[in-house]
Amino acid sequence: MNIKLPISLRLTLWYSALLLLGLGLFGFIAFFFVGKELYDEQFNTLSESAEEISEFVTLRNDSLDVRRLVEETNAMNLQENGIFFEIWADSSDFIYRSRNFPRFLKTSYTTLEQSPTRIPDRSGQLYHLYSSSVTLAAANEMKNHIFHIRTGQSVLYVQRVLNRIRMLLLLMIPVLLLLAGLSGWLLARRSLKPVVDITNAAREISLYQLDKKLPEPEQNDELRQLVQTFNAMIGRIQTGVTKIQQFTADASHELRTPLTVLRGEMEVTLRKPREKHEYISALHRQQPERNLLDGKNCL
Fold first, then answer.
1. What are all long-range contacts of 256-262, with beta carbons under 8 Å and residues at least 24 apart?
2. What is the DSSP letter of 264?
3. What is the pLDDT of residues 219-260, one digit of tens each?
C-alpha cells in the first residue's frame, strides 16, 4: 500500500527519526560512561581507604594491635562514607570486622583478590569489595605476619544516580523529540510556503490571463530560479498565442470582403427564375471570389 504523505510531513518524520536515533545513541553512551566513572571512583575510594587502613596495622606481642586500629579508623570517618572493612590473617583466621559491616554479606578469605569485585548479599544488595595486603615483621625477625585488608561499600548510591539519569533520559528524550518534531514541521511548512503560493498563483493563470506572472521569492535560491523559468515559459506561450490571435484576426478581415460580395451576387441571382445562360454568366462573375477563397485556404 503506497501512502502518499505531504513533503512537510515526510521531512518531519525523517528529521524526528534521525533525532531519535541520535538522542538514543547519546543517552546510551552518556549512561554507560557515567556509570563507569562512578564505579571507577568508588573503586578508587575503596583502594585509598585500604591503603590508609594498612598504615595503622601494627603489631603488639606479635599480634595485630586491634585497639589502635579501631581508634585510628574511627578517626577516618569511614562509617559516615558507608565504607566498611575487615582484616584476615595469612593463616585464614578472621581478626577484625568494622561495626557497619553488612550483616547478610558473607565473605571468606579464599575469595580475596588484588582487584575490585562485586558480590551480592543474601537480600540481593550489591557491594563492591577491594582487597589488599600488608606484611609486618615479627619482633624476633624470624617470621613475617601478612594481613589481608578488605574494604567495601554498597553500590546503592551509584544505582540511585544511574536510575535518576535513566529516568531523566526516558522523560527528556520524548519531550525533546516532540518539541523538535513540532519545530521541524513548522520549519518545513514555512520553507514550503513559497511552493504553496506558487501553486495557487499558477492555478489562476489561464489562456486568457497569460499576462499574470508568478511572484518571485525574495531569496535568490532554487525556488526563485524555478519561478523565473516558469514565468519565462508563460511569456513564450503568451507570445505564441498573441501571434495566433493576430493571424486569425488578419485572416478574418481578409475573408470578410470576398464572402460579402459572393453572398450579394448569389442573392441577386436567386431573386427570380432565370435562364440557363444567365446562371452560367453569374457563376463566371463569382469565379474570382472563389479563387481568392482558395488562395486564403492555402495560407
1. 258/289, 258/292, 258/293, 259/289, 259/293, 261/289, 262/286, 262/289, 262/290, 262/293
2. H
3. 777 778 878 888 888 788 778 878 887 888 777 777 676 767
Which runs of E-coded beta strand occur in the chain?
59-60, 63-64, 83-89, 94-97, 117-120, 126-137, 144-154
Single-letter amino acid, residue 216: E
Q: Which CATH architecture has domain 222-297?
A: Orthogonal Bundle (1.10)
What residues form DSSP beta bridges with 117? 129
Q: How far apart are CA 105 and CA 85, in angstroms?
A: 12
Predicted model pTM: 0.61
Q: Please tell me the distance from the alpha carbon of residue 261 to that of residue 9, in angstroms, as a whole number.
A: 69
Q: Render 124-155 in DSSP notation, one character per residue.
A: S-EEEEEEEEEEEE-TTSS-EEEEEEEEEEES
Task: Give the C-alpha separation, 278 to 285, whole Å.
Answer: 11
Contact 70, 139 (CB under 8 A): no
Specify the fold of 7-166: Beta-Lactamase (3.30.450)
Instruction: Give the Cα separation of 151 and 43 in Å (integer).
Output: 10
Q: In the chain, where are the structural domains located?
A: 7-166, 222-297
Average pLDDT, integer, range 115-139: 81
C-alpha Rg value of the chain to the nearest Å: 51
Cell numbers at 65, concatenated: 594491635
Q: In whole angstroms, what is the distance from residue 115 CA to residue 43 CA?
A: 9
